[in-house]
Amino acid sequence: MSTLTTLLSVLLLVSPQAPDEASPQPLGALLTVAEASNYRFTASHQDVIDLVDSLAASSPLATRAEMGRTSEGREIPLLIVADPPVADAPAAQAAVAEGRVLCLVFANIHAGEVCGKAATLMLARELLSAPTRPENAALLQRLVIVFAPIFNGDGNERMAPDNRPGQIGPETMGIRPNAMGLDLNRDYMKLESPEVSAMVRFLHTWEPQLVMDLHTTNGSHHRYALTWSPPLNPAGPTAPLALVRDRLLPDVTRSLSERTGLDTFAYGNFEQDHTRWATYSSLPRFGAQYHGLRGQLSILSEAYSHITFKERVVATLEFVRECLTWTAHNAAAVRNAYDQGREQTIALGQAAAAGHPDQVGIRHAIAAAPEPATLLGWVEETDDEGRTVPTNEPRDYTVEHFDHFEPVAFVTRPVAYLIPAGLDALVNLLRRHGIEVTTVADSEGLAAPLTIERYVIDAAPESGNAYLGHATPDIAATPTREDYEPAPSDWLVPMTQPLATLAMHLLEPEAEDALAPILLGDSALPGGDYPVLRVVR
């Protein structure tokens, strides 16, 4: 018997037996483990499955689906809510063609950060229990919302009370990595885990325009219930990034504060002297940056670990609701930004083919906003052990706000990349990302000989930037230009496709999260030729 069923039988005086499928429970009785335990506990994987199934059985507007499986074989469940209902990717795309926005809201990629696991299911229940209420009807009728409440099911099952030191509740929680020891929020380029592989397959099969990734933050003390971030890698399509950064998040920050009193701010942490507030990484291995490179409107949510579990769940629920409400009321702008991003990337590839390539940033450095920011913090003191601890006295700090990244290394966009026949693992991985790869024999309009650039490897350290199983070599290379006669069986990656910029970040040897140096191994040794070629004419 699952934790949820046990708690419901005690707290709600319902039978501990499973309900008859023909007589689903009333939606109002379907509580999360967090609610049923007065926020002492968080749900097991089976608890989530049981509740997702019950919600789907209790409303015709909910559909049950699966994103994939974990490395230990656990399901990554999906709950799709929409009016009229949507069952699969073709139906979702048909709804988008009719003017709706497809949204993916997922939680628990780090299984100790559990507030989103409860918040997604609570919000789904609220929408389904009162679908004609105007604010709910707007979401159900203008959006297709796919909730994925437990992404890291294996990590979730490794619960212990000390997995998140300093976090206020629940009594036990899961671990950060998956069962393979990988941080899933660092795996978006390599796709070593079945979980992130399933996520990326969902992204290019369903093509959501909006993606929300729900976390609980670590770090410095402040007075924000939740912090958020748009994509931070500026190489991605500009229209979706600008809409999230310049309109959606500022509007949501204001409206959420007015409606609920919750204060939120751009994600970051204070330096010890409180003169600087800095955001996190722009590396594409992180989900939010990867989504941005794909052209999705992406939002990272980080509930504050130093408030109670209940407060974190409520803050996350209200933030997600506010973002979805904004999206529903600005559906045309969201759809246009997504479409413009894809069209822009294709147009840049066409310009490169016509001899007018742009410069693409492949390495970035953090930069400060033009004006300082005033942030809500606490007066802090030093304890007997030399640690800085907050007091109960509020204090506002004016800080230098490092909120974005700027490119520090560029490459010219090629016409295409040429991958010699035999590098099937690399080709297969590109295709798993949804990137178009074809053979030279099947490519139209290709006139030999080609003008190509071949990289000579100058330096290739064994690894760098390692974190929970993930490392990326730091390659240095020099290009040389030559004429080249490709074989019909060679592979071609054209730049006239929506994911061309993502392909560049995967294939350029000096890109900060390049994939090819890892897959190619000894083919990328110093003094040797880098086998992936750039077609420049």
List the defining traits of the structure above.
eight-stranded mixed β-sheet; six-stranded antiparallel β-sheet; Aminopeptidase; 537 residues; disordered N terminus; alpha+beta; 15 helices
Q: What's the helix and strand layout?
A:
Blueprint: H1 3-11, H2 33-36, H3 45-58, E1 62-69, E2 75-81, H4 89-97, E3 101-107, H5 115-129, H6 134-142, E4 143-148, H7 153-156, H8 194-206, E5 210-217, E6 226-229, H9 238-260, E7 264-266, E8 269-270, E9 276-278, H10 287-294, E10 297-304, H11 309-329, H12 331-353, E11 359-368, E12 373-382, E13 388-412, E14 416-419, H13 424-432, E15 438-439, E16 450-459, E17 476-484, E18 491-494, H14 500-507, H15 516-520, E19 533-535
Parallel strand pairs: 3-4, 3-5, 5-10, 6-7, 9-13
Antiparallel strand pairs: 1-2, 2-4, 6-10, 8-9, 11-13, 12-13, 14-18, 14-19, 15-18, 16-17, 16-19
Helix pairs in contact: 3-5, 5-11, 6-11, 9-11, 9-12, 11-12
Give structural notes:
The protein has an 8-stranded mixed sheet, with helices on both faces. It has a 6-stranded antiparallel sheet with strand order 15-18-14-19-16-17, with helices on one face. Strands 8, 9, 11, 12 and 13 form a 5-stranded mixed sheet that branches. The chain has 15 helices and 19 strands. The longest helix has 23 residues, at 238-260. It is globular, with a radius of gyration of 24 Å. Strand 8 and strand 9 form a beta hairpin. The protein has 537 residues and is of the alpha+beta class. The protein has 2 domains: 59-346, Zn peptidases (Aminopeptidase), CATH 3.40.630.10; 414-535, no CATH class. Helix 6 packs across helix 11 (309-329) and helix 9 (238-260) packs across helix 11 (309-329). It has helices spanning 3-11, 33-36, 45-58, 89-97, 115-129, 134-142, 153-156, 194-206, 238-260, 287-294, 309-329, 331-353, 424-432, 500-507, 516-520; strands spanning 62-69, 75-81, 101-107, 143-148, 210-217, 226-229, 264-266, 269-270, 276-278, 297-304, 359-368, 373-382, 388-412, 416-419, 438-439, 450-459, 476-484, 491-494, 533-535.
